[in-house]
Recover the amino acids of this structure.
């Protein structure tokens, strides 16, 4: 091994050898950590000595021969015989005085004659040729041999003898007598080998793997794993060389990042077993503690003082095994653990777990130790720690780890209550991974609830899963048990569960969800905040007109305080009412809905539950704050407890799709809806599947991607879904698809089905499905203007005078049903309302309709006074190529395609109208986007409508 970083040491040895040739003896003590290259240094010296005509005698001490008297001396005698020396140091049996092997009198005695004979023989041999004696691993030598060496060392100063001895720096205390006698000698020299630096590592990589010096990042990676230890570095290189093909050199003439393998593992163990016992114990303790290792914990575990533990750790760091109190690579830690007998390792982990628990370590650290023992020792604290660790893992999005903790806990529960809590936590965690796994636990959870072992929030968990599946009768039965349990707990004086400080139990919250999900069986009591919904009262009026509907939302109680409205079996809970209730209860005690949304989303409300945060996003969309909802959802996606949890992320992606559609971004909406259906398969979505499917279908329809709707046409959905509000967006989306496909009669049937269900449930409003406006569009497409107008007028009667997206759409429909000269005022009002509501899709359509109306009137020469000249200019932009300079760059063909695209035509419809291919349409649109510097259809200026004969909304949209 040639390392430039060792040049200074090599030069010293060369100079001392030159002095040796001139008859001047020398002693060299080579010290360094285990695996630092001491043996390699001796091997190079042996080669250099042979090349220069000298004689190199090599002896190596061994731990297995430490109790063998004169072990090194026998090796030396053998080496001298092989070299041609006539005399045998043991041939003559000198008798006489003996000298102690140590000054303390406790070491064995060595005959003086033997010491003299060895010294004389070595010096006589050096008279023939310069002699270099290399002693490797001196710290493992037996005491008799050490005494002989000490005697010889003191007699070589005027002989051609050079003695080079290597020793591990972690064994210096064992060689204290030798050091005391030799270090003060004038011909004694010391060499201390340090770990290789970046230059040395780079040289070794280039030499062994071929190619140029590797880049700095690669060198740092290899140095980080090896710690600069030549032993470990060469093992890593061996593992790289064992790989086949391009991986050998990274395919670029140099090494990739190191990939520790079997050679590295063996090198780690070689390094470990060449350390002193205290270092071995410390290394094993660090391996067992893992990330939990600290100096006080290691000291207590090893039973030693802090100073001795610190010395052992320092030596392990110097050897390249550790970096601080962590192994440099996981494979090194695994190698050390595999070297411990299985029973001993289990015992160590039990001690570590107990010690970490006593010291208040994080639950996950204690739980990992308990998991690694694989034992079945039952203790209350063990189960509690595993449950806490599972909660933490779930919060971090590591559901697999949480399930593992809970499964281990379920096997060591001490009583039925503890077993029930573990079972419900396991069921909830697996449901978050895949709701399709819920049925395997539901029967047991129902039994535990009936037995009174699950109460409060725990009892509601299976209810939520049953609601998701659409098992409403079972959910109602289980909920009654939970409510009875809450009542019993209240009667007995136990503290009931609270929803963010409001005296509302978890069971009552679940009852609200049952009222919403299954409107035919609603039975609920909930608080109503007076005055908090005054602005949206007219928009929600349809919700309050069904039998038994909660009109207390509009009336309120005396002095504006919350009142309670008891809903009977015929009174369902509307989505907007549920949103207001959840957000107001979770976010603001004063019933300020918008302030409650902000508090929940900004996290100022400590312990804000995830469902409330999701509902708050939906509330933002209802409040015409779709852009803000998308921005906040991006932040929520960054949280690991959402991003890495399939159900949570799928629900959030669904909400994002709603917001994206509202702001006119059908591409983002479609992508989010598809992601939701990939994260949770349609079969696992339960009755909620209607929502993401509806969003995917609606987004594809908006984009004119009718082929993208085909996979959803025959997608099976649970029949019970049509008993829930989730059927409404499903029916409406497919109705719009059929309308776009020129099947208005089928579309009308879908829209009518929406209306029938909403009337039946007493939820005949617009927040769930604006079915009247959709049905009017279908009737207009069928040419039935009279029925369409009647439906629109009915819609106006129900909406009142408030501003809403439904009102803006109704104005568009009314304009389409009347003569062209009457359209501008209606469309101006529609534009004004839709701009305030933030529905960019409908706003774009309204502006396009308005532009087309003005263009048609101007072409016909009909004199019409514009009541809103500013809006007219913005919407129609007659002479638009002057008001938008970029339009002048468009060709006539591009203007015609762009005008139809703004009108709402699909690529296929544009191709049909202009008698060109779909591919040509796509090419024109690409050029238009580039010239106008826009991203897609939704960003095209409405001024392009000047070049269209008439709007092209799909079949009457």
């Amino acid at each position: 091994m040639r390392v430039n970083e060792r040049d200074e040491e090599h030069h010293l040895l060369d100079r001392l050898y030159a002095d040796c040739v001139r008859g001047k003896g020398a002693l060299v003590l080579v010290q360094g950590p285990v695996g630092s290259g001491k043996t390699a240094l001796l091997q190079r010296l042996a080669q250099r000595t042979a090349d220069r005509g000298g004689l190199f005698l090599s002896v190596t001490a061994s731990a297995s021969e430490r109790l063998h008297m004169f072990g090194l001396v026998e090796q030396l005698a053998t080496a001298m015989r092989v070299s041609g020396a006539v005399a045998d140091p043991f041939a003559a049996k000198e008798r006489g005085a003996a000298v102690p092997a140590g000054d303390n009198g406790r070491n064995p005695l060595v005959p003086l004659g033997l010491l003299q004979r060895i010294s004389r023989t070595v010096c006589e041999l050096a008279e023939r040729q310069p002699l270099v004696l290399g002693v490797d691993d001196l710290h493992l030598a037996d005491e008799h041999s050490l005494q002989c060496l000490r005697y010889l060392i003191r007699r070589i100063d005027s002989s051609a003898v050079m003695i080079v001895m290597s020793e591990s720096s972690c064994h210096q205390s064992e060689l204290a007598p030798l050091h005391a006698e030799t270090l003060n000698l004038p011909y004694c020299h010391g060499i201390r080998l340090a770990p290789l630096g970046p230059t040395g590592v780079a040289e070794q990589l280039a030499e062994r793997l071929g190619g140029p010096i590797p880049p700095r990042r690669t060198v740092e990676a290899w140095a980080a794993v090896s710690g600069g230890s030549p032993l470990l570095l060469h093992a890593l290189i061996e593992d790289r060389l064992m790989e086949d093909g391009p991986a050998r050199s990274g395919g670029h003439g140099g090494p990739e990042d190191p990939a520790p393998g079997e050679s590295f593992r063996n090198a780690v163990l070689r390094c470990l077993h060449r350390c002193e016992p205290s270092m071995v114990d410390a290394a094993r303790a660090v391996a067992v503690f893992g990330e939990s290792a600290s100096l006080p914990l290691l000291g207590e575990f090893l039973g030693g003082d802090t100073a001795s533990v610190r010395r052992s750790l320092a030596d392990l760091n110097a050897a390249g095994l550790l970096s601080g109190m962590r192994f440099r690579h996981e494979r090194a830690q695994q190698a050390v653990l595999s070297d411990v007998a299985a029973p001993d390792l289990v015992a160590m982990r039990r001690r570590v777990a107990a010690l970490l628990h006593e010291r208040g370590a994080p639950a996950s650290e204690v739980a990992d130790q308990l998991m690694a023992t694989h034992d079945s020792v039952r203790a209350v604290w063990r189960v509690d720690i595993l449950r806490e660790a599972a909660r933490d893992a779930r919060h971090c999005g590591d559901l697999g780890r949480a399930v593992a903790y809970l499964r281990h806990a379920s096997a060591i529960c001490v009583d039925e209550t503890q077993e029930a809590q573990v079972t419900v936590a396991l069921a909830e965690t697996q449901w978050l991974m895949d709701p399709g796994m819920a049925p395997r636990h539901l029967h047991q959870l129902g039994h535990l609830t009936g037995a009174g072992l699950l109460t409060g929030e725990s009892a509601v968990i299976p209810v939520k899963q049953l609601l998701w599946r659409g098992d409403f009768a079972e959910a109602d039965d289980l909920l009654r048990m939970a409510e009875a349990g809450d009542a019993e707990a209240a009667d007995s004086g136990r503290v009931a569960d609270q929803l963010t400080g409001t005296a509302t139990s978890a069971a009552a919250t679940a009852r609200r969800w049952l009222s919403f999900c299954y409107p035919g069986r609603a039975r609920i009591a909930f608080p109503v905040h007076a005055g908090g919904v005054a602005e949206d009262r007219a928009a929600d009026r349809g919700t309050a007109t069904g039998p038994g509907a909660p009109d207390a939302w509009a009336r309120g109680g005396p002095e504006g305080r919350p009142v309670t409205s008891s809903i009977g079996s015929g009174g369902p809970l509307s989505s907007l009412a549920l949103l207001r209730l959840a957000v107001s209860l979770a976010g603001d005690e004063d019933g300020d809905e918008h302030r409650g949304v902000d508090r929940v989303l900004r996290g100022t409300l400590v312990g804000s539950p995830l469902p409330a945060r999701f509902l708050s996003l939906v509330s933002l969309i209802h409040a015409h704050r779709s852009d803000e909802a998308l921005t906040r959802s991006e932040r929520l996606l960054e949280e690991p407890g959402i991003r890495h949890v399939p159900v949570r992320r799928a629900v959030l992606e669904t909400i994002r799709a709603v917001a994206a559609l509202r702001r006119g971004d059908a591409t983002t909406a479609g992508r989010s809806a598809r992601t939701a259906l990939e994260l949770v398969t349609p079969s696992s979505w339960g009755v909620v599947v209607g929502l993401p499917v509806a969003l995917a279908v609606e987004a594809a329809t908006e984009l004119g991607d009718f082929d993208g709707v085909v996979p959803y046409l025959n997608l099976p959905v649970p029949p019970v879904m049509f008993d829930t509000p989730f059927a409404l967006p499903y029916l409406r989306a497919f109705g719009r698809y059929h309308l776009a496909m020129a099947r208005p009669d089928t579309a009308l049937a879908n829209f009518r089905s929406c209306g029938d269900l909403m009337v039946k449930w007493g939820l005949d409003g617009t927040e769930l499905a604006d079915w009247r406006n959709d049905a009017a569009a279908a009737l207009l497409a069928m040419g039935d203007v009279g029925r369409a107008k009647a439906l629109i007028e009915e819609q106006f009667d129900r909406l009142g005078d408030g501003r809403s997206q439904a009102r803006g759409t109704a104005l568009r429909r009314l304009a389409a049903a009347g003569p062209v000269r009457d359209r501008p005022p209606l469309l101006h009002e529609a534009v004004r309302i839709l701009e305030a509501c933030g529905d960019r899709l409908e706003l774009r359509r309204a502006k396009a309709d308005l532009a087309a109306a003005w263009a048609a009137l101007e072409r016909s020469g009909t004199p019409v006074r514009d009541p809103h000249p500013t809006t007219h200019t913005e919407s129609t932009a007659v002479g638009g190529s002057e008001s938008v300079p970029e339009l002048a760059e468009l060709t006539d063909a591009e203007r015609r395609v762009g005008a139809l695209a703004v009108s709402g035509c699909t690529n296929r419809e544009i191709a049909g109208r202009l008698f060109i291919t779909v591919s040509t349409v796509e090419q024109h649109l690409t050029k238009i986007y580039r010239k106008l510097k826009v991203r897609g259809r939704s960003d095209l200026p409405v001024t392009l409508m000047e070049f269209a004969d008439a709007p092209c909304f799909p079949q009457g949209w």
Remarks:
- The radius of gyration is 42 Å.
- The mean pLDDT is 81.
- The CA atoms of residues 182 and 188 lie 7 Å apart.
